[in-house]
């Protein structure tokens, strides 16, 4: 396996399995920079990183 060993860098606890699944699906669609922001506990950066990247 080429992608081993795996290191856990982020986790979040949910009370409801459906919320956890929805959050996982949402995060999978995020950019690398947004994922790095939550890994580094910089949640306040998410609105800025969420702005339209297609602007010229």
Describe the structure concisely:
By secondary structure, the protein is mostly helical.
Walk me through the structure.
This protein is mainly alpha-helical. It has a domain at 17-49. The protein has helices at residues 17-28, 32-39, 46-49.
**Averaged pLDDT:** 89
Biggest sheet descriptor = none
Percent in strands = under 5%
Which of globular, elongated, flat, extended, rod-shaped describes the shape?
globular
Count of distinct strands = 0
The structural class is: mainly alpha
Assign a percent range to the helix content: 40-55%
List keywords for this structure.
mainly alpha; 0% strand; 56 residues
Chain-wise SSE layout:
Blueprint: H1 17-28, H2 32-39, H3 46-49
